[in-house]
Amino acid sequence: MSVEEYRRQLAALAEATARRNADLLATERAYHDGAATATAELVRAEAMAGAAARRAAALTASVAEVDREASRIWSALRAMHRRRPGWAARVGDPPEPLLPQSADLGYPDQSVPEARALALLGRASRRISQAGRGAPRPAPPRRVLPLLPVVGAAAAAFTALFAAGLVTLGGGYTTTQLVLRTAGWSVFFVAPFTGLPLAAALLDRLFGSRLDIGAIGLLVLGGMAAASGISIALAH
């Protein structure tokens, strides 16, 4: 073997050794990177599991609170009507909870806020408590008072237009036309007051309150203004 050939073999050996060391270094680096990624994924999974456990515990506590409040309200309802024969038997036991279901998985939908259920139960409890004590319902909230004339005016305007249509149809002197004209004027005279039942129903449903003297005055004032305006407009 010549010296030149020996040198070539040494160079090839050195190159192979360097390549092997580079491959070992890359393999070790990839191993450490994979281990770090796996550790990060494990930490994130543990954090998500902890958050899910806390969410489940909070939901369990909320459901238990809602169930207790519903049971108390149901018992109060049965006790309030105990004097009526057979009423408690007709009311029966509290119904089973009906949970909204997810369209995809069939699991209870957790997007419904718990505060809504508690608010509904609280309103029902107040209504039953007031009925049991015979206490009057509260007056309308102050923030809705400016809207009452608008409700009265809208109801009166619709009624007045309907009455004007009846009067127009009853423009002749036949029996039917006289009946229509009389009905139209009668409806027109009660038009300013037609907002009262609508407002009473809305206040009872939304706020559990009743119409007081001031609220009735605002409704009738708005209704009279609308009816007068329509009467003047039709007169011209």
From TrEMBL:
<feature type="transmembrane region" description="Helical">
    <location>
        <begin position="183"/>
        <end position="203"/>
    </location>
</feature>
<keyword id="KW-0472">Membrane</keyword>
<feature type="transmembrane region" description="Helical">
    <location>
        <begin position="215"/>
        <end position="235"/>
    </location>
</feature>
<keyword id="KW-1133">Transmembrane helix</keyword>
<keyword id="KW-0812">Transmembrane</keyword>
<feature type="transmembrane region" description="Helical">
    <location>
        <begin position="147"/>
        <end position="171"/>
    </location>
</feature>
<protein>
    <submittedName>
        <fullName>Uncharacterized protein</fullName>
    </submittedName>
</protein>
